[in-house]
Write a structure and sequence with these properties.
With 381 residues, the chain is of the alpha+beta class. It is built from eleven helices and 15 strands. The chain is globular and about 60 Å long. 41% of the residues are buried.
Amino acid sequence: MTLELRVVERISDVPEAEWNALVRADASPFVEHAWLACLEEAGCVGGRTGWLPRHLVLYDGGEIVAAAPAYLKMNSEGEFVFDWSWADLAERMGIAYYPKLILAVPFTPATGHRVLWHPSRDRGETVAVFAQAVRTITREMELSSAHVLFPEEAEARLWEAAGLTIRNGVQYHWTNDGFATFEDFLATLPQKKRTQIRRERKQPAIDGLTITTLTPADLTGPAGAELAATMHALYVTTVDKYFYGRRYLKKPFFDLVRQRFADRLAWTVARDREGKIVASAFNVKKDKVLYGRYWGATVDLPFLHFNVCYYHGIDEAIRDGLTTFNPGAGGEHKRVRGFAPTMTHSAHHVEDTRLRAVIDAFLERERRAIAAYVASGGAEE
């Protein structure tokens, strides 16, 4: 067996069929070749974006046996595992924190496989090979650190066994406990929350709005191209509202994914009485999981965000027999609407031993606090 790890600067240099042969049915859709290729072709990554593709591909005698989407980062934007304070500390210690290496999907805080591996290979051994590789790359390229963002828990433990330090975070996910109807789900909540959600769900009809999920057939041809342009415009409206907003996704990306990724898209739209789309959520669906991503609206109406981004997704998950609805990062307001605090994971290698010691001590305290919060169900003290 002759293993060779190559650093690939364009996902298009890896044949799509060979890359996707490593993507299991239960892997997130965001590690599929088409999604990563659309990001690159649309200019969302590469160039001066701060995300330079450096995908890690493991060959055995000329055959691809494992791979990981990876990037050199010139900043910490779009990662959702926040290490700005680490960068500040590094600067005070005289350490250049950027560039750094990350194994992740850009702008996507969705848990999933980070190392993709061939069925013929042992997963633990494969992650160990990648762990050694990222340490070597970090040292030889004189990077400050390497970070694996949002691996599933089983993979996170393999990175930990290979010597990386684990960091935990919190998101709010909805789990389908065999509900047949939305009312079945509401029955699991306290009366006050049930009453609140029922009242909020009535609001779109009062405002003359209809909320639907677009189908792949909707996304074809000129009409599909127009829908993609509308989705981008709505995305921009929300991003531009906030001082911290960044237009990570460029307009061509929306058109590329509706052409190449339509079978995974579950774009949700709200239309007014004239049929005009006034709000949307960029949702993606694979296997038994619904992923909520970007939201936008051109109108400011009560509870519209909750209905487009949460309640419609729960309804869809129940109807389609999905197990999980992962609506993305942040938002304790999700907890009062039936989403439970769920632990997320990342794994980190810091090259400088002084900086590593400080970060490791911090992460030990942070892990304890997050574990206690999740175990409590997010109960307020």
